[in-house]
Specification:
single chain, 134 residues, 3 helices, 33% strand
Length: 134
């Protein structure tokens, strides 16, 4: 298992890094622990949290096999600061696909930036990240 000691480690009662308004223990922790995300937006939020806490294994496990890289090396010097969900299309419990547009703010040393993406998700046995829409 990769060393995650240099990444933040929220406690169950701490505010969830995805800024859902729930505690980490109520929101993303169960998903990172193996529970299934019921919607595409909840999977996207948990994937953002996985970047925050350095959980590359979760990111790979929730990535669709057709587009998943062989490995993922997360930079502990990148600090993810906030997540804004801009819009969603479909992605509900009964849908087979969904789209989530988001803006994720980060800091890397003195650099500040925003990653904006329109992510596509598909559901077979569970929701998985497919790719970024063109």
């Amino acid at each position: 298992m990769p060393d995650r000691s240099s990444f933040p480690n929220p406690g169950p009662r701490d505010r969830c890094p995805c800024l859902s308004g729930q505690s980490y223990g109520e929101c993303c922790a169960p998903l990172l622990g193996g529970a299934e995300a019921p919607t595409a937006v909840q999977l996207m939020r948990s994937r953002y949290t996985a970047f925050v806490v350095g959980d590359a294994e979760y990111l790979l496990a929730t990535w669709h096999p057709s587009t998943r890289p062989d490995d993922l090396d997360l930079d502990p010097d990148v600090r993810w600061r906030s997540l804004e969900v801009i819009r969603t299309e479909r992605g509900g419990p009964l849908d087979r696909e969904g789209v989530v547009e988001f803006a994720a703010r980060y800091a890397h040393g003195a650099e500040r930036g925003v990653q904006r993406e329109v992510s596509r998700f598909v559901r077979d046995d569970r929701w998985r990240y497919l790719d970024a829409a063109d």
